[in-house]
Sequence to fold (427 residues):
Amino acid sequence: MASTGRIEIDGKTHDFAVTEGTEGERAIHIEDLRAQTQCITLDPGYKNTGSCESAITFIDGEKGILHHRGYSIEDLASNSSFLEVAYLLIHGELPTQSEYEMFRSGVTIHTMLHEDLKDFFSAFPKDAHPMAVCSAVVAALSTFYPEDLDPNDSEQVMNSAERLIAKFPTIAAYAHKHSIGHPCLYPDNSLSYVENFLTMMFGTPCDEYEVDPVVARAIEMLLILHADHEQNCSTSTVRLVGSSHANLFASISAGINALWGPRHGGANQQVVEMLESIAEEGLTARQFVDRAKDRDDTSRLMGFGHRVYRNYDPRARVIKSSADDVLAKLGVDDKLLEIAIDLERIALEEDYFAERRLYPNVDFYSGVIFKALGIPVQSFTVLFAMGRLPGWIAQWMELHEQEQAIGRPRQIYTGPTSRKYTPIETR
Ligand code: ACO
Fold:
């Protein structure tokens, strides 16, 4: 039987339909609230606002569960590949062998950048942050493919989606190469997605570059772990921009900018910088945790806390458990990992973190492992964006399939009430 939610305002009751998701989550439909009551809901930061119904990703933040299309993140991280997860997110099902081959070759043929697009990189300062470069170059893709920008044409959208997934590793590698003054290598389509990225990132025209399979598998796993995370800040940005019927490239470029912030994906860079500064200043983990608890100190324990998880982030658990193994295989004895483990242990014993239910999130250990794999610190969030691309694309497509209205929140106005303009000489 359909449930109803009842709201009472000024002694008058109003009934609203209640929707239940497949995992039992419930929501009250308040679309008619203002029409019925002249009230809106006020929820700064959207802490309790559902912006859509979605069949892509399920998170149970209390239990620390993350599923994509029904498959657990642990299952996908151990058994799948990044392109297969991309297919799953975008198409809703795991591909058959032939569907996979078609998708893989559809992506692979687009790995090269237009020669004129390559000129963009040399126009940026050498110390430009690669997230800024990536967002600008992704936005610029819309100038090179004007024939594929109609958000209501599924063939054009798929062309843009494949181009984005294919070209992003090339863009990411070129952003890095430009920053160190090295020539950019062309993609090699005989390599896998991750091998190709690593070769463009670290190879040079002078020497043959051999991809370390341990590094390639670890990057593959990290990309899978970042592939989607329902309605977070950057995904909501992608959806919001997409809801205006802006094209896919423009929407994804906006998502890259949202991800860059230190409270979101930019935290992976911040975590390593925090760990390095703890090591440099010779602080103990306890001293830093005390700082993070102190309201008069602006330091936060980066990589801790999450809007949805009130438990250990399952992605952090996977990364932590593979960090030891990957570092041992690479022969890296990492002081930063030791500091991170110490910080986690001490923080989890503290009432401050327990009361606020703050646990390590995906960024707490990902930076440590990215660093051990040789990824430059400034490119950590770029790797996050590379992983998140299929999620953003799938969410953007779902928004269009659902023919959702333009995203446009309301507000409660708190400024001056109506007043008359006074000429400048009389003010
Ligand atoms: N260190 C110390 N205190 C913290 C931390 C932290 N990392 N995170 C939250 N708190 C405290 C806040 O000061 C606040 O305390 P108060 O109730 O005494 O005022 C309380 O916990 C609630 O924090 P909010 O910021 O209100 O929680 P919100 O859900 O808005 O923010 C966020 C979540 C942004 C992730 C926050 O926990 C944070 O800034 N963490 C550090 C940055 C980080 O790791 N970001 C990556 C998140 S994962 C991702 O986006 C991929």
